[in-house]
Amino acid sequence: MLGDVRVGAVGLGTMPLSVEGRPDEARAVATVHAALDAGVTLLDTADSYHPPAGTPGEGELLVARALASYGAGADGVLVATKGGRGRTADGGWTVDGRPAHLRRAAEASARRLGATPIGLYQLHKPDPAVPYAESLGAIRELLNAGTVRLAGVSNVDTEQILLAREILGDRLVSVQNRYSPAVRTSEAELRLCAELGLAFLPWSPLGGISRSSLDGPSGQREDPEFGAFHRVARARGVSPQRVALAWLLARSETVLPIPGASRPESARDSAAAGTLALTAQEVAELDGAAPTTLAPVPTA
Length: 300
Known about the structure:
The protein is α/β, with parallel strands linked by helices. The protein has helices at residues 25-37, 58-70, 99-113, 132-145, 158-168, 187-196, 227-236, 240-251, 264-271, 280-287; strands at 12-13, 42-44, 78-83, 85-87, 93-95, 118-123, 148-154, 172-178, 199-203. Helix 6 (187-196) links the parallel strand 8 (172-178) and strand 9. Helix 1 packs parallel to helix 9 (264-271). The longest helix is centred in the middle third of the chain and has 15 residues, at 99-113.
């Protein structure tokens, strides 16, 4: 659940479709359509998802075109976007959490998506040059103005989650942090989300199994450190990526992975993780894989 909205167990992260190394438009749209055909009802994008020499909002426009060409079946899809980051000419990333910027960014995102209110608007990253409460205040104004329906925060620690909850109340529905087989540093944030009933959206959820779009072209990694995921995959006759997503879903009821995809086949495979029920023994084996052994996450 994202607030009062029910979505599929696995979403689609559209970053690989709109940054450097992206596929052509036809394959990008086919990838989104394949995800929707497979039951995905959450698409995640951002105004900063574009190549270094591109234009802000290219990723949002792609999502809008893909939904428009899908037809009536897209009516139940929740589109999540993010504001507060940008790109540099050399491919780097910037942060801008000024309230005036966030208000302009959200209004521009709504126009590009053709949706007011935006289904889920997420503050992309805290800006060290702006008090976090001020950035969150801008999100609250957007909620009050009807520009945004639901709010989320990303790349945050537990104190920032609690502050966001204090300022945004029940309209804060999600936290999006990096979390994967290889990167488990947001364990405390995952546990807090479970306690508060917030959805936890792991970005780059296949780290350790596949490379992130931030790290270059995606692809499977045969890293012995994560051999448990490959062993379970071979025994089940499925991809290690599907096992990784099923493991994330088993971590907590609050987890909602948003794996990226640049091919229809990958989108379909990821969506199928929602029906892959791992055994308690398999979960324990994967929990104990590198880099840290994990304890069960309590249910809210």
